[in-house]
Amino acid sequence: MINDALSLDEQAMVHAAGDPATAPEELLRIANYLELVSDPDFERPTSGTDFLRFVGRQGPLAVVLEPHPRTAIVAALVANPNTPQKTLLHFAADFPEAFLANPVLLLLLLEHPDLFRQMDELRLLVFLRHPAIPANLLNTIRGYASPNVAQAIAYHINVYGEAGADWQAQAEALLAQIPLPPVDGQEALIEHLALGTLPTWLEQRIRASNEEHIQQALLQTVTVLEDEVFAAMNYTVNSQPFDLASIAMADREQRKLAAESSDPEILKLLADDDDPSVRARVAFNIHTPLEVLPRLELDDVQPVRNALALNPNVSAELLATMARDYSWSALRMRKAIAQHPNVTPAILARLATDESIQVRNAVVRNPQTSVTARQQLLDRALTAALYSAHPMFHFIAMANPYTDPQHLGKGLRSPYWYGRYALALNPSSPLEIVSALTNDAHCFVRRAAQSQLAQRVKEQA
Asked: Directed axis angle between helix 200-207 and helix 186-195, to 10°?
């Protein structure tokens, strides 16, 4: 009901947003409404499947890669001289021409010479894609800019001019300075190395790195993940005899020892022990009777189920049941299932949609993973990379020919010049995107797009 009421008022909001007589308080209320409806879940109910499908939207670049859906209201707000300063700066990148033409801009700059310091850096970088920003304004912004903003301004055509004949060598020299991912990007790096998404020059640079977390990522890309087993799981079969009649009354340490035996009757009994550390040993024990294993799968203590997933005797049917547990507490269990000797391509396909990158990394390294599942993993990894705040992953998504064309389209609004540069040279970029990039403000981006467009037109002829 709320959505319907708001949509009925949209025409009135467009009129109010564009009316110079509208009070700033009312314009702020309209801006707050725009923030509300920018939430992708505002009008679309979500489910677990939806979340997986649209997971890329959760990335930090989601707020700038897609324009606001209420374009008419936004355009009116940006052109209105009565719009509050904070709102103007927030939406300036969506309609830069209207923002630059707004008569209040000069007054704001007189009152606040560092006006653009108040603008979110990502939005400012998107704004700087606009080729009509005058050089005097660019130099004003550069006076207090961050390194990323300063570099974008330095190569803006109204400061640098058009790129010369050696543009490609210059651009590649700048690209070579993209920072490698920090420690918190290690898992994503493993995923992209395993999927083969990196350009050759970038992979060579990574392999030449002496950073410890980078070297660990390279090692884990080609080796099976180390099993995360209970500390007490590393044992040999306990061959000492145990009395079935008395073991249930024995102390905890004795029952733990008995759970490491090969006596099926003892193991059946201890599968229902009150102590989870005893049940975990039974779950892990390769001598536990097969008919007991489904009972242990129902255990309400997750470490018991984790241990069960490491038992090589667990059937594919039981693994399929366990793999349906998408809870965060079951992460280690699903990771073990992805490496289990009895796992099937169908189970791996299910785990390929897992929220945990650790589970997906185990799936991609399993030779039984189907082509379809690998494609799904690739699509997801590239989508996440597109929205990643880390420069290298964003560049990978823009440069990779397997990135979804719909996602490539979002790259037109990339705040990073190297993302748009990669997009211009990506052979999978639609012609209209390459054509649009020929008007980009960054001298190397526009030159790359011009070169690519001329080549494509020649090939089509």
From this structure: 130
